[in-house]
Amino acid sequence: MKIILISVGTRGDMEPFLVVGEILKEKGHQVICAFPEQFRELAEDSNLEFASLGRKFIDLLDSDIGKVAMGGSGSGFKKFVALIKLARNQTESQKELLYKQCELIENENPDRIVYNGKAIYPVIWGLNNQGKNILICSIPYMHYVKGHTHVAFNSNYGTFFNRLTFSLALFGMVTTAKISIKWLKITKKITRKTIRNALVSNKAIYTISPSLFSRPDYWNENLKVSGFHERNKILNWKPNKELSDFLKKHSKILFITFGSMLNPKPEEKTRILLEILVRNQIPAIINTASGGLVKPDTFDSDLIHFVSQIPYDWIFPKVYGVIHHGGSGTTHLALKYGCATMIIPHIIDQFVWNKIINNIGAGPKGIKIGKITSRNLEPKILELVNNSSFKKAAEEVAGQMKKEDFREELYNSIVN
What we know:
Rossmann fold; 2 domains
């Protein structure tokens, strides 16, 4: 069976598809990963075939406008203006993504397409290939759940308005599909109702641990929660002597990362963190990753160690707690390895994970990136380090997650 995996987004959006790709390939299927060009190496490192969706989408996110819109700048008005400008500038990048998805799928004629919510052509393709396109959701509340709004709204407005947010999100997806059909110059008449019905009835798999998001019993059978799946990322990685020595020297270390998230003032964010850590003599490993945090020219190297990349499945078992941006994969991994956790949310679903972490007692509720100051962040970090109940709760969730095994269920949901 030939299966195309299409994922659009930042690096964290690629990880669930790499795991799915490895599972499918192990079962003997031909797998093609269609990602933005910047993530070619990820697919090739997993020995998966790669098809490029171009560079424009990620280049836009990495632009100055993208950094403000995605990372915040401390000013709500500035962020609002940046979001408007980002939306205006997205047309060309969205067209590139759409045309490349269309060309690939029409050329390859796959048996199945597995895609995320930012990829629109699989929805159009699925209108004539019912049951063969499968949506992967690595974030919760994409489909109606009582007591919650759609993930994009991140609140609880009561039953009527909560339902309305899911209807609005569905309306937006239908509208995007209609615009895409126009761009592709498809002449066949396709009604909004047809697209809507296809979206509602399509298979959707939530790659989320039921310890964090359990499947509502009132959901239709086409909606599954098939657990968190992790790929092995440490096969070709070894720590250097400096990192090994740092880990030996300290017993209660924090790991800090903003992952693939950017922000307009990484130097300032790093300075705030360093001031708090040094003032309270808290040892930490800081991951500069995509540039949301930066390594300064001078710092206390006895107390702080900087890395630019590191496998989370290697480092998390060796640290006490994690402060991170709140991506789905990082959230799951921190808990899987029993780390007390605090999220500094940047965008959309990260605010939801922030609430979930706090609700399960695994860490204090974090402050969004654009609002952090030394004054408001310091008590949160001290609470994370000193309140042992956070560590205990995280370890309890880790025990639950280690019992989960949904690989066969995930596989069968795709191929059957």
